[in-house]
Amino acid sequence: MAKSSSPKLRIVPLGGLGEIGKNMTVFELGNDAIIVDTGIMFPANDMFGVDYIIPDFSYLTGRKDLKIHGILYTHGHEDHVGATQHVVQAFPGVPIYATPLTAGLIEVKLKDAQLHKSTKIHTFRAGDVLKVGPFVVESYHVCHSIPDCVGFGINTPYGIIVHSGDYKFDNTPVDGKRTDYAKLAEFSRRGVLMLMGDSTNADSPGWTPSESVVEGAFDSVFRQAKGRIMVATFASLISRFNQVGVVAERYGRKIAVAGTSMAKNIEMSRELGILKVPDDMFMDLSRIGHYPVGKVVILVTGAQGEPSAVLARLSTGRHRQLDVQPGDTIILSSHTIPGNEESVNRTINRLFQRGADVIYDPIAQVHVSGHARQEEMKLLIGLTNPQYFMPIHGELRHLRAHAKLALQSGIAYDKVFVVENGFVIEIDKNGARVAERVPGSYVFVDGSGVGDIGKAVIRDREVLARDGFMMVVVNVDSKSGEMIDGPEIVSRGFVYLRDSNELLDTIKGTIHDVLLSRNGDSPARLREKLQESLGRVLYNETKRRPMVFTVINER
Amino acid sequence: MAKSSSPKLRIVPLGGLGEIGKNMTVFELGNDAIIVDTGIMFPANDMFGVDYIIPDFSYLTGRKDLKIHGILYTHGHEDHVGATQHVVQAFPGVPIYATPLTAGLIEVKLKDAQLHKSTKIHTFRAGDVLKVGPFVVESYHVCHSIPDCVGFGINTPYGIIVHSGDYKFDNTPVDGKRTDYAKLAEFSRRGVLMLMGDSTNADSPGWTPSESVVEGAFDSVFRQAKGRIMVATFASLISRFNQVGVVAERYGRKIAVAGTSMAKNIEMSRELGILKVPDDMFMDLSRIGHYPVGKVVILVTGAQGEPSAVLARLSTGRHRQLDVQPGDTIILSSHTIPGNEESVNRTINRLFQRGADVIYDPIAQVHVSGHARQEEMKLLIGLTNPQYFMPIHGELRHLRAHAKLALQSGIAYDKVFVVENGFVIEIDKNGARVAERVPGSYVFVDGSGVGDIGKAVIRDREVLARDGFMMVVVNVDSKSGEMIDGPEIVSRGFVYLRDSNELLDTIKGTIHDVLLSRNGDSPARLREKLQESLGRVLYNETKRRPMVFTVINER
Questions:
Q1: Closest C-alpha to B98, from B116, B132, B74, B115
Q2: ipTM of the complex
């Protein structure tokens, strides 16, 4: 029970493009704080030129009074660990708590950013109890699409807060490790103040199939395939590599790996003992020519159709070591992330063009989601029986759908908190409520720039993407006021000027007219008039609106 | 039976971005030809600035020997009729054959293009036999997601070619009109030379649900909703309007319409008697304030998240007459077209933000596909029992999946033609084969320009979209060779120069260095050097590659 002197507990979800409470969450108790996860998001198709997006944590850097005791990670996916170097840079020396695989993935990032020496990583295993500042945090294992995932039971003066992490209830997981029902039931027995639950699939009815069903689909493909088999999947989907290993062994195929990130992760998970495929099952990609086509399986990256990854390069014949041959069978063992549909479908079509047979969902169940569906969500609510419920991990539509499930499960309307990032949930002895809003948006990373690209720059890129631009340099005789030897016209993304003699004549005519009607206009005014007139003429002629810039040199 | 003197029959699928044999197909018999459908495609997300895409029919304009006797339309969707004005412009006076609704939709396009007076539209009804040049074409009704759809049985000297159009087998269609089983069976009895079948859903197992299930989902929403109901759907989904009408009447709600294209289509289909909702069920949008919220349903456009359509404007509070209120229920009765997922999801989230409850698939079955799935495809093959099979309407992956179904249905491998657009299928008394390839690609339409935007312009737009550009104007004293009063820098889509004093200093320093090391370089060479140096410096400083243009004025 809370002492009357206990400081307020505050939960602050930060960052996230669309997704809420996913990438980074702060738990504060008075002046002490911990962070759960520090992930990135990937830009939408209309966020031109943005490489990735990190949470705006300016709220935290502004809270000079706050002592951050540690960052705790639920698992190693980019949307949970990808911004680690940015956060560690802002809070030098903050310790990190992660399971072995997650720690390994984070270490790579910290090394790249030269931050690994100054950062202490505490490695723990699911079930370990962590004492971080005033918080006692009980980790527990959850199933998801990467090994070594945990959720947290965070003990506070007001009760336990159960954070689900990314989870599903898989009763036949590939590694044999179920989500820790016993721990969840124990939390419930002790009394759960609040459940924070993953909402990703909250609009999908039923129960997500077990990872094990994928093996059956693989078996049927491996049994029938006569040529080489390639399996494209996420570089971090290590349980899938185990499944490929099992089926490959069954059908006497050796495994090669194409794709740097995937090779690195396989190396790491073999060292950690997470990947259980025997060493002699692997061969170097350069050696596949020494084996009959029926004895080879190749793991490749690029299942999202990313242009620079292996699968897209194979589909366009741009891979250095590998090419697609008629008779190859290619399995896309992945879920298409919204926004990538066009590039994935294009890649599949091109692979078919090259003579491969391509197996993808829904052709066969070669992938299952790593997130719980509605029935599992209701099970988690039932198992933990929380006083308050806060749906997290998902877009607003998913949070609302998850909230409906909580209401159906008997939680009262005023005990359910559907909030957007930056809203503070405040808890004291009188209960929980939504308090103030702090900056909780996101920051664009483009090249080496963090946050120097704002909406105005994106808007300019959008205009340039649509209609391009035109630059016109006019040399004017300062005595006669007439154009000499010109104009020089440069345009990009507008039309082929070389093919547009008529348009060129129209542009020259417009310049001539504007110069004639100068009437003592200042150089600045003349330039402005010319820009306006050209913009108008170009729109009339082409129904397009390129950006127009003019330079007038008077000689 | 074919006379030995019969000319060759040729089938030429044209156009299509990804989709094959969908937008436009030519049937030739010697020097006589007919066209089936002349549709458009919508650009992919990376086809910057392209408004829409039409088939490249330069093959046809090049065949001066060919007499085109008519264009026959299967139905009124844009991907089948959208390019009509472009084709009619190229072949003035070519007659059009269409069912009443399709004819109505085409007429609007021809009027906009001032081509309606010079174009003869022959209106026919499903079941009518059309004599077009040497072809006797038997039309037959098919179910799809717009009324008045047909397929064609095209009689040729070598047998009947059955073209499915866009179809599904709906045994309980909303308008009571099933796909014409009897006609298909009759074709089969007479002997089908070739089946050309819609492949859109060829990777989906099972049978597409009937349009009727949507009514059940609507009923459940209407029964529970206390506030206003808005239904967003395709502007051409007239059977859906009928369903809304039935349920609205049941629950005593009046219907208003928001969206010009939808209002036009409703007007037209009421005139044609296709929309059977009583007149007094409709009210003007301006009158909704006069009814209690529980007595109103509003049909709106924009179910694909298109920024300028009603739903997106409602989601951002930019609609002139309407706003979303807490208590509103909004149904998205539509399928999200691949590539639109991000904008649809964003729109849904924003509607939730404004307090509406949003119902979409998979929350409830408020939409069903208009295309057949695998079991229906096998039924069509079984009903027609064709000698040859040519999957059409779909990406290559769908065609391959459809071909597998044909093989399973007993059609021999060498009788199945999976070809891309532009491949000619040639048929004579010795059988069918793939002949030469003709141009069968597509043409971009941007603003008023048709085909003046090529890959190079799109590539420039892509570069501009990613990193923007910078223009630097340097005034140089021709005597001292030094920079005077400058430089003038304009950049768009790159960084906020105003916030980047350091970068400005670096640029100035670079200009200074380049001018210093001129060494008698020509103005052109100097300019080139400056452009290169600036590009390098900007990349080093920002890891971005904007386009750089320089102007050097010597005074």
A1: B74
A2: 0.90
